[in-house]
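Final report, closing paragraph on structural work. Over the funding period we assembled a curated collection of sequence-structure pairs, and we close with a single example.
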Amino acid sequence: MKAVLCSALLAALLASGCGKTLAASDLAGNWEGTVVVPDAELLKQLKAMGKSDKDLPEFKKAIESNKYPMELHPDMTFTFGSGLAAASGSWTFKNPTLTLTIDKARGMKVEDIVKQAPQMKDEFKPMVMTASADGGKITGSLPNPGGQSVSVTFVKAKG
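Its predicted structure, as stored:
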């Protein structure tokens, strides 16, 4: 009797996807990201624009309401953003760690950007992020030369 119950329980767990290991192919597709910038960094930016602390809530809402598209292609390349914020490169995945390596940004090869502006090299370090166990969310920090942590969360697009 115990053997039958154990077999039935094991079959039910396997059928429900329990124990499924997330693979790179599970992450391929379209994603939508949002960023969260610490208040101290936002205040610094506001003051540089001649604004005051009272402008923080509206500024923060404007920053955090922006959506950033990303597509992880099955061939292990990716595209991120659009226009002047566009970037592309390659990605690797070793559960649960996703690493994005930017090859092109702002329409130029990263190596050419860094030759012209060496102070920007830290902006193009590989981005190491974490995928949720179900593969529906990716979280991490973006390179920020100002030293403040800028977190980003990507949610897999439906469909």
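The two ends are 44 Å apart (CA to CA). The longest helix spans residues 2-15. We thank the funder for supporting this effort.
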